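Try this one yourself first.
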């Protein structure tokens, strides 16, 4: 099949999208990856770049101007969607490529897929990385400005989709509740396509890591607030991209609490190096507040990256993450509160950590991309057979 994989994030840093495109190419499909630069290097499939990714200010302004009108007139969502230059460019690229299937990553790409289905007869595979209608439901501003628009766009696109996949069992169940009649989406977890790191016992200094996008609603404030009460051998690294103002606020918070010397702020690394760099640590943190359905059913890629790196994990006691931690005995659970994080960290001695780190590698062997890719390839095999039979 000719498959257009469309993503409105920076392609070089979106590991799930890169894994998807690589897997479909290896399965014998002709793949065109469409999205924002920089382009991934050395990939064996075609890449089409959109105009420069808009600035955060332009993105916020776009939400207000293009999405807020849906509160009064939901049908305006589909009209205002196309006011975005990048989306119009992507539409032109797809019409020229004439895909037989569009792999639509997140709700923002669904109208493109619907357009390709209407004009070209393309099949639609909707890959819901997040629970779109609940991603920011903890924010009143988002609910007022964007929710109606998101629900309208996703509602139309998900009903037009020939297949729906998502990242966790919880989101799969929530989508069937949100859209009655929808078949339960297939779950393809966000596991890395990487070799497992070798086991490394804990040393004199115990390294604690959070990697990923540094932003609010990710438990970072509770982590920093808990650090003064950690045992002296624990040191924290926060690794990932961040808005300058938010990064400065985190650094100021650490300074105010007298722990700036125990925190390293590091820039992100490429997807290919995430696991190897994470393996330098001993504990991986994934502590989300239970502030929305999106968070409640999250199964972030960082959790699987920590496991592949051989790290003990400390996660929120949210259903899908907690199930993995309990099943494999690879970590402990902590609520998004400073006292709870402190208790979890200080409760980990070296023998316990070494055991958890070994169990993390056991979990990583089971929760591997080699297994997840079978679901993805099988789904497209079914679409191919269905298309050849029409």
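Now uncover the answer:
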């Amino acid at each position: 099949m000719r498959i257009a994989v469309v993503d409105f994030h920076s392609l070089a840093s979106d590991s799930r999208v890169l894994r998807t495109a690589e897997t479909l190419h290896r399965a014998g499909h002709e793949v065109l990856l469409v999205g924002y630069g920089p382009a991934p290097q050395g990939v064996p499939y075609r890449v089409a770049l959109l105009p420069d990714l808009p600035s955060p200010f332009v993105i916020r302004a776009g939400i207000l101007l293009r999405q807020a009108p849906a509160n009064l007139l939901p049908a305006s969502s589909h009209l205002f969607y196309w006011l975005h230059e990048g989306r119009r460019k992507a539409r032109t690229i797809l019409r020229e490529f004439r895909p037989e299937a569009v792999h639509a990553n997140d709700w923002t790409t669904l109208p493109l897929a619907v357009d390709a289905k209407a004009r070209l007869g393309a099949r639609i595979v909707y890959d819901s990385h997040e629970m779109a209608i609940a991603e920011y439901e903890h924010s009143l501003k988002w609910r007022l400005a964007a929710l109606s628009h998101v629900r309208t766009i996703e509602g139309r696109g998900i009903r037009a989709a020939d297949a729906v996949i998502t990242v966790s069992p919880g989101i799969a169940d929530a989508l069937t509740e949100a859209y009655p009649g929808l078949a339960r989406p297939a779950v393809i977890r966000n596991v890395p396509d990487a070799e497992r790191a070798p086991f490394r016992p804990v040393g004199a200094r115990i390294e604690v890591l959070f990697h990923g996008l540094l932003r609010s609603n990710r438990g970072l404030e509770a982590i920093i607030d808990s650090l003064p009460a950690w045992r002296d051998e624990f040191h924290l690294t926060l690794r990932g991209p961040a808005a300058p103002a938010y990064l400065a606020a985190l650094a100021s918070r650490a300074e105010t609490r007298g722990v700036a010397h125990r925190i390293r702020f590091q820039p992100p690394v490429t997807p290919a190096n995430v696991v190897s760099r994470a393996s330098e640590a001993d504990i991986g943190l994934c502590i989300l507040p239970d502030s929305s359905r999106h968070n409640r059913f999250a199964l972030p890629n960082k959790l699987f990256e920590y496991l592949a790196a051989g790290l003990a994990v400390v996660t929120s006691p949210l259903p899908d993450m907690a199930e993995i931690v309990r099943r494999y005995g690879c970590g402990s659970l902590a609520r998004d509160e400073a006292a709870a994080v402190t208790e979890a960290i200080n409760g980990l001695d070296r023998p316990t950590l070494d055991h958890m780190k070994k169990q993390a590698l056991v979990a990583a062997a089971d929760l591997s991309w080699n297994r997840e890719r079978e679901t993805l390839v099988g789904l497209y095999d079914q679409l191919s057979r269905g298309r050849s039979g029409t």
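Discussion: The two ends are 14 Å apart (CA to CA). Residues 95 and 119 are 8 Å apart (CA to CA).
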